[in-house]
Amino acid sequence: MTAVSAQTNAQQWRDSLNQLNEQIRLAPKSVDLRLRKAAVNIELNQWDYAAEEYGRVLDIDPDNLSALYFRAYVYSHERHYDLARYDYEAFLAIVPRHFEAQLGLAMVKRQLGRTSEAIDDLNQLVQMFPDSAMAYAARAGFESEQHKMDLALYDWSEAIRLAPDNAEFVVSKVDVLLQLKRKKEARKEIESAIRRGLPRGAFREWMNRCR
User: Fold this and answer.
1) What does the DSSP assignment read for 149-194?
2) What is the pLDDT of residues 104-117, one digit of tens each?
3) Residue 21 has pLDDT above 90, yes or no
4) What CA–CA distance (Å, rounded) separates 3 from 88?
5) Which residues are CB-neighbours of 60 under 8 A, at least 6 positions away?
6) What 8-state DSSP symbol labels residue 96?
7) Separation CA 134–CA 199 (nearest Å)
8) pLDDT band, very low/low/confident/very high, at 6 (cuts 50, 70, 90)
9) Which of 31, 30, 108, 21 is nearest to 67 (CA)?
């Protein structure tokens, strides 16, 4: 996006915000208008205003799922992890089987240093969504951070099994294999990915590291 088009786009969002503010002035109890305003606040990087607007929605409708979920997202972005955790937990109390909220809660707990709780949440995520490559990838990434490489290797393998065309998953598994000093297996993993049709260029650096 060019600077001119970005500036035009931002102006369009500001125009939308002005219109929504006027509509909200006429209908202050409208949840829909306030949710739309908060979404525009996010587009304009007005994170504090977005959080405040979601709060106003929750004052009107305490169990509003959109407000709970997206306020948690905003709080996470602002690194208010305790507040994000509260909103994710409130959301999941209403909708327990929600992938993004479960993952968001686990990542928030990771940031809070609640390692055992985070891995419990990720284990639960995999159990709830056993066919999700992203569930295995999320757990693998966390296990890699914790230097549990054998566990991470298994989960990256499962993620690749479920999403064989994802080059990032392959690179992540190769990285774990290299950390385990298993260069031959790492090279075979790359060769297998190339045979599946993934671009050779995506692995050039990693092939060099496997020598």
Assistant:
1) HHHHHHHHHHHHHH-TT-HHHHHHHHHHHHHTT-HHHHHHHHHHHH
2) 999 999 999 999 99
3) no
4) 36
5) 29, 31, 34
6) S
7) 21
8) low
9) 31
